[in-house]
Specification:
Blueprint lengths: L1 E6 L6 H18 L3 E11 L2 E10 L4 E8 L2 H18 L1 H10 L6 E9 L18 E12 L1 H11 L3 E6 L5 E6 L5 E4 L2
Parallel strand pairs: 1-2, 6-7
Antiparallel strand pairs: 2-3, 3-4, 5-6, 7-8, 8-9
């Protein structure tokens, strides 16, 4: 597994890097047999240290966790605890998908845009033009998954919504977390 361990305006020592590699390797190997790479970023927010970890699995699924603590090792321990819980929860499904899916998840390219929000506090005012202002434009990848895999990927990544190409119907679908805590699925 490839590791990318970095700090945002924090110096990361060799001892912390070794600790991250051994602990993260142990947790991921226990649940997912074939991880490809891991990215761990440490930062500081006020008096707390923040650790964000993202692990990419060979099947194309991504697991993300974030932890905070007053000390840097504590923030990593909180992150690894959350990741361990997520992977433990999905262990059976991860192992089942390894058997069903012999090739990695297919990804197709798409454009992603970030639009400027309304700066006016008064929403009743008529805008000058109906064209939105594009703040950022970037390439994104849309995975080709089953609905169950999409829900699992959304949960593992901690995302509120996931756009995916449905394996069975070969169309673009969306799964999202509803306000009542359930999962919604849009199949146009």
């Amino acid at each position: 597994m490839r590791y990318q361990i970095s700090g945002k305006q924090i110096d990361i020592g060799a001892a912390l890097q070794t600790h991250v590699q051994t602990e993260l390797g142990n947790v991921v190997e226990k649940y997912a047999g074939r991880p490809t790479d891991a990215m761990v970023v440490f930062s500081k927010s006020g008096h707390e240290h923040v650790c964000e970890a993202t692990v990419h699995l060979s099947t194309g699924l991504t697991c993300t966790a974030k932890g905070k603590a007053p000390e840097i090792y504590g923030s990593f321990d909180a992150t690894i605890e959350k990741m361990d819980k997520q992977l433990r929860r999905y262990k059976r499904r991860l192992k089942d998908h390894h058997k069903e899916r012999t090739t990695p998840v297919e990804l197709i390219g798409a454009s992603s845009y970030i639009l400027a929000g309304s700066e006016d506090a008064d929403d009743t005012a008529e805008p000058d033009s109906l064209q939105p202002i594009i703040v950022a434009e970037m390439e994104t990848k849309i995975p080709s998954l089953s609905v169950g895999e999409a829900v699992m990927q959304m949960e593992l990544a901690g995302a509120p919504v996931l756009v995916f190409r449905n394996d069975k119907k070969d169309g673009v679908n969306v799964v999202y977390r509803r306000d009542d805590g359930n999962i919604g699925w849009i199949d146009p």
